[in-house]
């Protein structure tokens, strides 16, 4: 046998042309992998841009259907709802979270009627409703567990009754998933799904979101007694394991890009539907560089989203969902 020219194995052959690259691609990003977080407010006829999130808007309820329509038309499977609750109804106990006619419930009813095929994901936590910006209630300076879980469970039922399909507890209290699951089942809401923010870190990357919600300036202290320490990875597996045991149907890792290692470990260990949240600070960071002409908009955004898929995420909550879906549609015509 005649010796070939060294090297015989050439990885570059599979990168030679576009069709080969497509043929050997291990992962892909589709419209079905996208979830779009949206912000809405009271009032009428107003759309305001979130200063630290160029391209992300808060819309009044009368504009919500028009806001969601492009996402529905593109076939984005679900939107995540974030109400910007008026300051006057926020209090220390987050009472407004339990009002069946609160902004969140009205938005859910409206969207369910307008777009029955778009899944509604409801964030369960008290921060849009509390005067102190924490996700639970405070006793003696501490966000207490059991009392918070009781209120959050009532919030869960309130949202599910208004038409929220997937309850997404983002509060990080212990035992909340099991308590919420039992309450949903007792209320006959057997098919209301739970997407648990299972591994949610006490992160600096939520800053722009808190601006969008108006809870940033109000937040007293930090969330380190309930959200996870960014130093930890094994602990994320324990959190996920407990949430699955308590009845979570899907789990989430949050933030996204700095935590791709966690997504990979969760997916490899549990093989449950796993989602990643590319949070507000990640969006702000990318957009700041894009706006400065330092990164190519399309390539940077699409690469960041594909990386989540490669890390093992079934889907991504991303403020780029609509533009990503548009690009996917242009490229693949789907
Ligand atoms: C509420 C909640 C937060 C985010 C989603 N749900 C903020 C927080 O935990 O302080 C952050 C989302 C983002 O930054 O895009 N508990």
Automatic annotation (TrEMBL):
Superkingdom as given in the UniProt entry: Bacteria
UniProt enzyme class: lyase
UniProt GO cellular component terms: cytosol
Spans through the membrane: none
Enzyme Commission designation: 4.2.1.24
Residues at which Mg(2+) binds: 239
One record GO biological process: protoporphyrinogen IX biosynthetic process
Any matching Pfam family: ALAD
GO molecular function list: porphobilinogen synthase activity; zinc ion binding
Keyword line: Heme biosynthesis, Lyase, Magnesium, Metal-binding, Porphyrin biosynthesis
Ribosomal protein is among the record's keywords: no
Active site residues according to the UniProt entry: 200, 254
Pathway: Porphyrin-containing compound metabolism; protoporphyrin-IX biosynthesis; coproporphyrinogen-III from 5-aminolevulinate: step 1/4
Alphabetized SMART domains for the sequence: ALAD
Family note: Belongs to the ALAD family.
Name listed for the protein in its UniProt record: Delta-aminolevulinic acid dehydratase
């Amino acid at each position: 046998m005649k010796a070939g020219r060294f090297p015989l194995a050439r990885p570059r052959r599979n990168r030679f042309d576009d069709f080969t690259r497509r043929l050997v691609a291990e992962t892909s990003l589709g419209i079905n992998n996208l979830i779009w977080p949206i912000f809405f407010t009271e009032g009428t006829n107003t759309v305001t841009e979130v200063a630290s999130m160029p391209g992300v808007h808060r819309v009044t309820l009368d504009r919500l259907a028009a806001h969601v329509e492009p996402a529905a038309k593109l076939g984005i499977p679900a939107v995540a709802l974030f109400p910007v609750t008026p300051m006057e109804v926020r209090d220390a106990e987050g009472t407004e979270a339990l009002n069946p006619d609160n902004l969140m419930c009205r938005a859910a009813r409206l969207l369910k009627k307008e777009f029955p095929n778009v899944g509604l994901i409801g964030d369960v936590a008290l921060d849009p409703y509390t005067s102190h910006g924490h996700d639970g209630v405070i006793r003696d300076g501490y966000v207490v567990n059991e009392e918070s879980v009781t209120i959050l469970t009532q919030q869960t039922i309130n949202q599910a009754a208004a038409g929220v399909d997937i309850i997404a507890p983002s509060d990080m209290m212990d035992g909340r998933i099991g308590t919420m699951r039992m309450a949903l089942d007792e209320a006959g809401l057997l098919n209301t799904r739970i997407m648990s923010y299972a591994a949610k870190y006490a992160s600096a990357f939520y800053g722009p979101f808190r601006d969008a919600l108006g809870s940033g300036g109000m937040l007293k202290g930090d969330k380190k007694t309930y959200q996870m320490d960014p130093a930890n990875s094994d602990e994320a597996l324990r959190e996920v394991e407990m949430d699955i045991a308590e009845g979570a149907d899907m789990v989430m890792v949050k933030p996204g890009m700095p935590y791709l290692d966690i997504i990979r470990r969760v997916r490899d260990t549990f093989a449950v539907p796993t989602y990643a949240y590319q949070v507000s600070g990640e969006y702000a960071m990318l957009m700041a560089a894009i706006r400065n002409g330092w990164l190519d908009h399309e390539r940077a955004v699409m690469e960041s989203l594909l990386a989540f898929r490669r890390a093992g995420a079934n889907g991504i909550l991303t403020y780029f969902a609509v533009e990503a879906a548009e690009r996917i549609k242009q490229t693949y015509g789907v």
